[in-house]
Write a structure and sequence with these properties.
The chain is built from four helices and eight strands; from the N terminus they run E-E-E-E-H-E-E-H-E-H-E-H. The chain starts with 14 loop residues before the first strand and ends in a 13-residue tail after the last helix. The chain has about 140 residues and is an alpha/beta fold. It has one domain: 2-Layer Sandwich (Transcription Regulator spoIIAA), CATH 3.30.750. The protein has helices at about 45-55, 80-85, 100-110, 125-130, and strands spanning about 15-20, 20-25, 30-35, 40, 65-70, 75, 90-95, 115-120.
Length: about 140
């Protein structure tokens, strides 16, 4: 389910940003990303996302990333290795899996990540997990 179509979206204050390859919802301590159907998430697109994140949160931010896999797209899991070697703003990430293939891909991504990666079946579960991370328990969140 798309984040904006979910009931949980009504509980948060967020900023929506759109790039040619996906939509991004920025909350206080986490991002929900929804990639477009059939895209290949190349390193150039990842750099666009990083720039968008830094513009919104600043370069010294600490956030979590939720990948709401509502569409099928490709991604090179080796990018995780390069990403974590050069960037340190992600505390953890969650992949919301709506199919067996999503789950298999998320399992592969988990093996390449140096940070905590959770696989989830729903937006509610993913957001709850992120909000309960020790790094964010002291932050107050803006609920409507």
């Amino acid at each position: 389910m798309k984040f904006e179509d979910s009931t949980i979206s009504k509980k948060f204050t967020y900023t929506k940003k759109t790039l040619a390859f996906g939509e991004f919802y920025f909350m206080d301590t986490f991002i929900i990303a929804e990639m477009k159907q059939g895209i290949h998430l190349s390193w150039n697109k990842i750099v666009e996302m990083i720039n968008l994140i830094h513009l919104h949160y600043g370069v010294n931010c600490k956030i979590a990333y939720i990948s709401n896999k509502i569409n099928s797209y490709s991604f090179d899991p080796n990018h995780w290795v390069y990403f974590f070697k050069h960037y340190d703003f992600l505390v953890a990430s969650v992949s919301i899996c709506y199919s067996e293939m999503n789950y298999i891909n998320a399992t592969l991504e988990k093996k390449f990540s140096s940070k905590s990666v959770k696989r989830s079946n729903s937006l509610e579960e993913a957001i709850s997990w992120v909000l309960n991370l020790d790094e964010f328990k002291t932050n107050s969140l803006k609920l409507k």
